Amino acid sequence: MVKRAIEQVHRFRGRIRIRPLTFPSGKRVSWGQGGDGPMRIKDVMRLTGLTRKAVYYYEEAGLITPAVDPDNQYRIYSREDVERLRYIRLLRSLGLPIRDIRELILHPERAAGLLRKRLAETEAEAEELNQRRSALLVLIEAAEQSPEDGGKSRMDEAIRFAAAAEEERKRRGDYMRRKLLELFPGAMGKFMALHFGAFLDGPLEGADKEAAWDRLVDYVDSMESFEIPEPMAGQINQLDDSEFEEIAAAYREMQQRYIAPTEAEYEKLKEELKQQAEFFRSWPDGRMQAENARQLKESLDRAGFFTVFIGQMRVLSPEYTSYLETLDRLQRDTGIRYEDHGALVF
Q1: Do 333 and 266 reside in the same domain of the chain?
Q2: Which of 185-189, 204-208, 234-238 has the highest mean pLDDT?
Q3: Beta strand extents in the chain (DSSP E only)
Q4: Is residue 245 situated within a structural domain?
Q5: Could you give the percent of the chain with pLDDT greater than 70?
């Protein structure tokens, strides 16, 4: 149900995105074959090494805006589009998230800072791997010396290396999101990572954040009455790792639009909410989705989730507070409650 709901949201968003530029009707387009002239999607795929799906995804994300031939509605790509896509592919291969790539493209003067942030994450990843390697080498050496105990004779030494690796992990931007998946396997961990991952993408640094993180983990670990509705839990559990990461990335991109929007961006969000509410009423599974959202909210209320967990999230992520403020403002200004339309927001 989660997967289908997100697919519906993105299908809907695709229909209301800003329309690309068009060439004047009747003007003959001279198609290029990789030179400086306009190009079709097949030329772009060949020159960039990207799939058709990837090109369209970056268009949907607003990273490129190709023109459209009004005579046949074919997309028309320029040399600038191709160069930007090649740059995007490079940055993605280096691990930069879409939101940072968008900021880099819109504000190239911020490139050095964004790239240095990714460099720091990469160095932390490398050091983490080095510490893990040391732990494994210790266990291997012990296992070879004493085959009967499987390496346990030097377990304390290996634990020290593993602990050092864990400290390096905390410097990584995805530490908290991935830790939720480790601490709470199955539907609960995926549910938490899906809904809160966008705001748990910074390193776990500072005493206040570490204390808030410990309280958050202790609280979720002690929850007894938290239940994900079976249809939703079943859908989440059916996702393999790649499918989950794809949906989580799309969900994070959607959530980012609600963080400190400009007035123009806010007005667009408000109009989209009105149209989404209208669209939801015609969705065949809408009533079931709304009922699932209602059941989940009641379960979370009983567990004190909105008091304890949300309080720690506000400490861990100032962006999360901004996100909540935008959601509250949208509901006040439109008179539309998200949960009435199958979307439980927190």
Answers
A1: yes
A2: 204-208
A3: 67-68, 75-76
A4: yes
A5: 82
